[in-house]
From TrEMBL:
GO terms for molecular function: oxidoreductase activity; zinc ion binding. Transmembrane segments: none annotated. It comes from Streptomyces vietnamensis. SUPFAM superfamilies: GroES-like, NAD(P)-binding Rossmann-fold domains. Residues 10-343 form the Enoyl reductase (ER) domain. Pfam families: ADH_N, ADH_zinc_N. Its cofactor is Zn(2+). This is Alcohol dehydrogenase. Keywords: Metal-binding, Oxidoreductase, Zinc. Belongs to the zinc-containing alcohol dehydrogenase family. InterPro entries: ADH-like_C, ADH-like_N, ADH_Zn_CS, ER, GroES-like_sf, NAD(P)-bd_dom_sf.
């Protein structure tokens, strides 16, 4: 089969690799129908995630069709259309029993495209399939559903829930890429008083306004002063970091009010300065986290009900074989205006129920 292979820091290669096969009784082999590229994949290509070895097939988000299952798999069977979660869960270790699947100590966690071959391929082996894939209802389009593999649960769990967003809060989201935009969309579920989006690119801030940001500001326009002005000098109740560079993390710690919360989502490849000499007296809570995807079933129900704005996040679509081009477009987002890119075939359409038999 063909797959996107990490050859070391630099561009990926779309090339032939061996087909995956069942290794463990809980595995499923899934034909990839729709896949996407994550900002974390770009961090890997920069060398920020040294655990990823050259030769690894990248990707941890996909929708596909089950083609084979191990003997212990009970929740899906060949022919089922499924969402592949970015997190695999053994279901037995201490962390999985607590719902902290991202910290799975039984061979799961973030493994796809990290420590085992991932989803940016024609086929993928998914371990612990009973807890790591989700059957999709016909009402949910595959190109929408792929956004539930990572960005929506990550933004909701690591940003909104960790940040403790509450009604009437002032929420600042630093970074209006896909993760930041999904954080804006899911923060709105808690009726904050205002959401302020910060980014370098005006095109992304326009998307933030579409998804519910009440105020937007570029870095050059002075976001810290804007937050101070809008909160009468108090600061934001919640600051969500969705970039992953030292400057944006430190900006968040300066914009949050005494007693406020900083929720870090961004993947950091370099150390950031923690100014405890300023923060210790201000009762600031700082959270970090890898997504657990425990919220995915709930988010899937919301998507089926039309309550999540998935389509607005996708700016570019490609065929699966255009993986190298898709990486180039996504990696040059400042020039291309890319938010989320998807790759795959035609959209899924809902099946029509057969007509009832005519009596007589």
């Amino acid at each position: 089969m063909k797959a996107a292979v990490f050859e070391g820091p630099g561009p990926i290669t779309w090339r032939d690799v061996p087909d995956p096969g069942i290794k463990d009784p809980g595995d499923a082999i899934v034909r990839v129908d729709v896949v996407t590229i994550c900002g974390t994949d770009l961090h890997i290509l920069k060398g920020d995630v040294p655990e990823v070895a050259p030769g690894r097939v990248l990707g941890h988000e996909a929708v596909g069709t089950v083609v084979e299952t191990g003997r212990d798999v009970r929740s899906v069977r060949p022919g089922d259309r499924v969402l592949i979660s970015c997190i695999s869960a053994c279901g037995r270790c201490r962390f999985c029993r607590e719902g902290r699947y991202g910290q799975c100590a039984g061979g799961g966690g973030w493994v796809l495209g990290h420590t085992i071959d991932g989803t940016q391929a024609e086929y993928v082996r998914v371990p612990f399939a009973d807890l790591s894939v989700h059957p999709l209802p016909n009402a949910v389009d595959s190109f929408d559903a792929v956004l539930l593999a990572d960005i929506f649960p990550t933004s909701y769990e690591v940003g909104v829930l960790n940040g403790g967003v509450r009604p009437a809060d002032t929420v600042v989201v630093v970074g209006a890429g896909p993760i930041g935009l999904a954080a804006i969309a899911t923060a709105r579920l808690y009726s904050p008083g205002r959401i302020i989006a910060v980014d370098l690119a005006e095109s992304r801030l326009a998307a933030a306004r579409t998804l519910g940001a009440d105020a937007t500001v570029t870095v050059s326009e002075g976001p810290e002063q804007l937050v101070e002005d809008l909160t009468n000098g108090l600061g934001a109740d919640v600051a969500i970091e969705a970039v992953g560079v030292p400057e944006t993390f430190e900006m968040c710690t300066r914009m949050v009010r005494p007693g406020g919360r900083v929720a870090n989502i961004g993947v950091h490849g370099k150390p950031a300065v923690l100014h405890l000499e300023d923060l210790w007296i201000r009762d600031v809570t700082i959270t970090t986290g890898l997504v657990d995807t425990s919220s995915t079933p709930m988010l899937l129900r919301m998507m089926a009900a039309g309550r999540l704005p998935a389509a607005e996040l996708v700016t570019h679509r490609f065929e699966l074989g255009q993986m190298e081009e898709a990486y180039d477009v996504f990696g040059r987002a400042a020039d291309t205006g890319a938010l989320k890119v998807t790759l795959g075939g035609p959209q899924h359409t809902a099946l029509q129920a057969p007509a009832p038999p005519v009596a007589g």
